[in-house]
């Protein structure tokens, strides 16, 4: 299984970015697909995920600003990030978990929020 993340970059505070995670397998074969982020010296933290049923979950700090969605035909999961804050600077990683909780990670994409 391969997960290809893209869409990161440099954005000013208050700006927006859309991340994409292209999955090499039918996304319905996973219990959920999501986005985590990691900063140096810290553990990865969940940002958002979407289950095969379409149920979504968000970290408290991004609710109302971020939205996770999917394109089933393309096997792509998106993370729309609005009103970005400097503390959102991190490497964002795509994750997929099966119902047996086998976990797959993609490479990260750097998001830098700075003026």
How is the main sheet built?
6 strands, mixed
Label the overall shape.
globular
How are the strands of the largest sheet arranged? 2-10-9-4-5-6
Give the termini separation: 37 Å
Q: What order do the helices and strands follow?
A: EEEEEEEEEE
Number of strands: 10
Question: Could you write a compact summary of the structure shown?
Answer:
The protein is globular, with a radius of gyration of 13 Å. Helix content is 0%, strand content 54%. The mean pLDDT is 96.
Could you describe the 3D structure shown?
The protein contains no helices and 10 strands. The model has no long low-confidence stretch (mean pLDDT 96). Strand 9 and strand 10 form a beta hairpin. By secondary structure, it is mostly beta strands. It is globular and about 40 Å long.
Task: List the main descriptive attributes of the protein structure presented here.
115 residues; mainly beta; 6-stranded mixed β-sheet; 4-stranded antiparallel β-sheet; 0% helix
